[in-house]
Design brief:
Helix content: 25-40%
Protein name: WYL domain-containing protein
Distance between the termini: 49 Å
Number of helices: 7
Organism: Rheinheimera baltica
Structural class: alpha+beta
Number of strands: 10
Radius of gyration: 23 Å
InterPro entries: CapW_CTD, CBASS_pafABC_assoc_protein, WHD_CapW, WYL_dom
Order of helices and strands: EEHHEEEEEHEHEHHEH
């Protein structure tokens, strides 16, 4: 598949990349290796008896949100089969469990927790529901009338244009530009409209205020008004 990419090293008693090594199965980015380490470390954490040889790697993970396997299974089946399902759900704005008839279509993983994107019969709109807040399964309600195809915010993309905080020194701006792989002083991140709030949260940005210290802020959103329209 890639003859000449590796050469045998007698001292190492193994193979090492040749001087003209060129990646064939990956793009050769360091992020690929780091993501692989993250996945392997997470796998080893779940199966603690496995020794995968990565003791030199440590990964900080957020606290696990409790998700009932039966509820997850019901949501996955409803999404796969295009069904509406009646679920018990709690929210921070309502102290009591409510019956919600939803038509789920996609599971969404954010840095902090899992959600399901679904059409809500009560609110007559598509919403993101936190998986850990479902409390019960009341039953299937038939075929879904509203599917992923009608979810306009899901199919609409928004560009989040990141730039360096203008208050930084030229030296600091150069560091931030390198950190975020900016081109001509900006980095464009394309996100589904429905997921903009989570993207903003993952970037550690507060769209409503500016940090007093530019070293804490580091980056700003150049198209702030546009992003704000989708961050709800």
């Amino acid at each position: 598949m890639a003859p000449g990419n590796l050469e045998y090293d007698g001292k190492l008693k193994g193979y090492k990349p040749a001087a003209d090594f060129a990646p064939k199965l990956t793009s050769g980015l360091a992020d690929e290796y780091l993501h692989a380490l993250s996945s392997i470390k997470d796998f080893a954490h779940t199966f603690s008896q496995l020794d995968l040889g990565f003791a030199h790697t440590e990964m900080l993970t957020p606290p696990l949100r409790q998700v009932n396997p039966d509820i997850l299974r019901a949501l996955v089946h409803a999404a796969r089969d295009g069904k509406k399902i009646d679920m018990g759900y709690v929210s921070l704005t309502s102290p009591d469990e409510e019956s919600r008839i939803i038509a789920p279509h996609t599971l969404v993983c954010t840095p902090l927790r899992w959600h399901v994107r679904a059409y809500c019969e009560k609110n007559r709109e598509y919403r993101n529901f936190v998986l850990s807040r479902f409390r019960g399964i009341n039953g299937i309600e038939g075929d879904a009338d509203m599917t992923k195809d009608q979810d306009e915010r899901w199919h609409s993309k928004v560009d989040i244009v990141l730039v360096r905080d203008s208050r930084l020194s030229d030296y600091q701006k150069a560091i931030i530009a390198e950190d975020y792989n900016m081109t001509e002083g900006k980095r464009v991140i394309s996100v589904r409209s429905a997921l903009v709030p989570y993207a903003v949260q993952a970037l550690n940005l507060d769209l409503a205020k500016i940090e007093a210290r530019p070293e804490a802020q580091q980056i700003m959103v150049a198209n702030l008004d546009e992003v704000k329209r989708h961050a709800f």
